Amino acid sequence: MDAIKENTGTAVSERKRAMGLLARASTEELQAGWLAIEPKPEVHPVRGPETGLVMVRGRVGGGGDPFNLGEATVSRATVRLGSGEIGHGQLLGNDREKARLAAIFDALYQRPEHRFTVDKLIDQVEGRIDAEDRKHAEQTAATRVDFFTMVRGDN
Amino acid sequence: MYVAVKGGEAAIANAHQLLADRRRGDRSLPAISIDQIVAQLGLAVDRVMAEASLYDRELAALAVRQARGDMIEAIFILRAYRTTLPRFGMSVPVDTASMKIERRISATYKDLPGGQLLGPTFDYTHRLLDPSLLTDEPVAEPLRRTADESSMMRVSDILAGEGLIEGDGQMPEDHVPGDLTREPLEFPLSRDLRLQALARGDEGFLLALAYSTQRGYARTHPFVGEVRIGEVEVELDIPELGFAVSLGPVQVTECQMVNQFQGSAKNPPQFTRGYGLVFGQSERKAMAMSLVDRALRAEEFGEDIVAPAQDEEFVISHSDNVQATGFVEHLKLPHYVDFQAELDLVRRMRAEYDARNGVEKSDPIRDAAE
Question: Count of domains in chain A?
């Protein structure tokens, strides 16, 4: 049953969204989320946490074939819960502790009893990012040029 | 005579200690923090990231501080650091069409969908020194206006609708994007490799070459179709999961340069394009890159190669400021033995010359190196 659910598009897109938001969570948000988890699960490291590089690719002309733009630092971790779920955390930057916490939450996200807590965390992250994005978009919008035409006589 | 010389350890250690002292400067002033460099010298940090070819604001700011603000030294330090890290993989190509726009302007269309958004620009400032920045005066919050939710159409797509511009760059089928950090460059290069080299190329060098094309050394009749700055998501495929996840956003600057083209036997008259994409906010670099990208496509369009900016081997071989500074600056390292050999040679030739011309031998000043 779980295996079937794993492969459905909804499960994939939900987990993808959760992992993307966990990658952007602040240390404070992740630590507060971790405090809210009781009892604490057994967590075993599988890989990392470690920092390395991802080659960021662009596209020729913006939409053409890929080219290598340059690298970015990425930290990642993989953990296994005592109950067996594997979680992956990966995010831009050097913060390995954040990657480890993100991996734990990705694992917890797969356990129904923790789903609510993790959802709450990622909704909070999403709310913060949306508010920041809106603020920036509105500040940018205020710099939009409103052209007006000068009327130079009528004949 | 060759004499093995050792020494300098104490001098080097003391010099580095002196460097650390001068870097810190006057102790009665507070030390500058990495956060402050990221927040208040952001464009210096962006340049270091772009030319070090490593996106990491914190490490780039550390490099700027360590290098005392010497940009090329900072780029060198960050470039060196990246070689110590393993590579996890390649990202899904970033989608600049869905960029979160901070600035977007077009010099070709006044009323384009999404509008002209000036963003935080130096343009239209009067370049007068601002005495208010001598002190820490409060800065007003920026104004806000309801944002247009519609997507920011690419200018190249507007022209593409009329069929009057070439498409985005397509490489031959089965082409694997080249990576100059993994394989040595072999000329001629494919355009993807050139773009990688240009994206990390020295801003000053590319700016000068771009300027040369405007002054007539390879005319390309350029218009800025569009410059956009903003954040794009970096996604990485996770093999264990079988799908790609977002690692977070990076800020990039993109320039679409639109260039006139007469047409040839193979191609109808249409606009051609140069492309620039750079880490961080770096409009000058992205524009210069796009001009040089177009100039380097001369052969593709059957144009005569008459100017430095069109010479791929010349441009790409000299665009990397870490390589350039390494080779130029190595000249200051001890060359005592090489020089001694040359000195002996010149002395002998001079003695022969003097003997031929009947010049009296004067007392030579003994060479200090002996």
Answer: 1
Model confidence, pTM = 0.92
A99 domain-assigned: yes
Instruction: List residues bridging with A90 in a β-sheet.
Output: A76
What's the token pair of residue B170?
């397509």
Dist. CA B115–CA B109, nearest whole Å: 9
B321 Cα to chain A: minimum distance (Å):
15
Rounded Cα distance, B86 and B84, in Å: 7
Residues of chain A in contact with residue B285, where contact means CB-CB under 8 angstroms, are: none
pLDDT digits (tens, 9 = 90+) for B122-155: 999 999 999 999 998 999 999 999 988 777 888 8
Of B40, B47, B45, B37, the residue nearest B207 (C-alpha): B47
Where does A36-155 have alpha helices with state H? 96-109, 112-141
Q: What DSSP assignment string belongs to B133-155?
A: GGTT---PPPP--PPP-S----H
Residue pLDDT, tens place only, B41-58? 999 999 999 999 999 999
Tell me the domain boundaries of chain B: 9-82, 91-120+151-170+178-326, 334-370
